[in-house]
Amino acid sequence: MAEEKLRVVHVGTGGRGRWPLEVIGNDPRFESVALVDINENFLAAARQATGLPESACFRDLEQAVRSVPADLMIICTPTATHAPFARIGFAHGLHVLTEKGMTQDWPTAIALVREAQEAGVKFCVSQNYRYFPVEQTMKTLFGTEKYGTPAFMDLIHHRYRPEPRTLNYKNAMLWDMSCHHFDNLVFWFGPAESVIARTFSAPWSKYAPHDAGVSAVITFQNGVTCTYSLTHIGQNNWHRTWIHTTTGTLRAHDVRGIEYRPINSNEAEAVPLLEVPRSEQGVINDVYRYITEGVEPGISGRNNLTTLAIIEACGRSHERNAAVELAEVMSEVNL
Question: What is the distance between the alpha carbons of residues 70 and 85, in angstroms, rounded to a whole number?
Fold first, then answer.
């Protein structure tokens, strides 16, 4: 039996909006039916990539969804627009996949998930980092005889992003980038239990009046503790994940692939990586199964709240100068 084909409205066709054009264009389970953007150059390039006519190009999303029958909306626009655009999709009965982060604040995230459920549509967030070969492989190593059970880890990511651009809101570094890191951690370890965090700035930062760095200690329900640090104001880029297990250490992101060192050893060995599809294809595969088979993925809006709750806890911890229990944050989710 032929697979169901889903008709797609692309909202935002430049920047991160290019990956859906590429992935959808090569996946026979999908059909691009409309392009929406306010940038004429982006629209022209998207038309060329998809072969769609001028009549399928729109500058206004409402007009697009009223004019073209569709099943799925993919949103790749600045984070501030994700909620209003997603709500247009919900109102017209469209399933929605939005780029990360889902929103810029916790109450809106909860509201969006609830509104998608009330509209009877599937809602997902493109947390594509969990589909990378390193992240997928790492998940399979935990608890094995050779690689052991994780106990604690460091995750440090300093980013040279001197210009705020659209990251001009409170805790933007958390909502825009930590969402990837925290989603990986939830993918690996499950829900967090508690967080203690501080946000900070630097003399050269252009992000004022907002901070653009965060340091935190995150404890997960399974007992793993993560020492976490992210900046958008680093003077150079550096990314490291270092996990201490019962048999040694697993290291990634500042080395090629994954390295494993047994206890108290100077000899590192490369861990073979899984062969996986392009990360965005992994996203699309799970979205398709969710819509057509009802198999809820880790990137569903509802499940993404477990990731975003850590972000919210980090912000509250800084403001209170105290640890925050995730049970408090998740108690506000009434779905």
Answer: 15
**Residue 115, pLDDT above cutoff 70:** yes
DSSP state of 299: T
Can you tell me the distance from the alpha carbon of 302 to that of 116, in angstroms, rounded to the nearest whole number? Answer: 10
Domain locations along the chain: 6-126+280-298, 130-276+308-330
For the residues of 259-323, what is the DSSP string, one character each?
EEEETT-S--EEEPPP----HHHHHHHHHHHHHHH----TTBHHHHHHHHHHHHHHHHHHHHTS-
The tens digit of pLDDT for each residue in 305-333 reads 999 999 999 999 999 999 999 999 999 99
Q: Where are the alpha helices (DSSP H) in 237-278?
A: none
pTM of the predicted structure, to 2 decimals: 0.96
Q: Quick check: 2 pLDDT over 90? A: no
Superfamily of segment(s) 130-276+308-330: Dihydrodipicolinate Reductase; domain 2 (3.30.360.10)
* 224 class by beta-carbon count within 10 Å (0-12 exposed, 13-18 middle, 19+ buried): buried
Q: What is the pLDDT of residue 1?
A: 47
Two tokens at 286? 């799970």
Mean pLDDT, rounded, of the chain: 97
Q: Which of 305, 304, 330 has its CA nearest to residue 126?
A: 304
Q: How many Cβ atoms sit within 10 Å of the Cβ of residue 313?
A: 27
**Count of C-beta atoms within a 10 Å radius of residue 91:** 13
Overall average pLDDT of the 237-259 stretch: 98
| Domain topology for 6-126+280-298 | Rossmann fold (3.40.50)
Residue 73, pLDDT score: 98
State how far the Cα of 152 lies from the Cα of 244, in Å rounded to an integer.
Answer: 6
